[in-house]
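Practice problem: predict the structure.
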Amino acid sequence: MIVKQQKREGRTVEVISLNRDEKVQGVRPSVDVLLNSVAQIYGKDALGVILTGMGSDGSMGIMKIKKAGAW
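Answer:
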């Protein structure tokens, strides 16, 4: 699952897209993949919150959001 930008009716909008890419850390969808896409699209305007204790999925993605200057 990722956030990506698409053109719709002459405007650029953000949409959630599901894919069949390889599993990351043995899971799909991966929180890391989702948060990486959020960091790319929203940069410093993002807000990341991890609400799980399931392994380390999301730890790298949340760091990408932080490095983008976001909360």
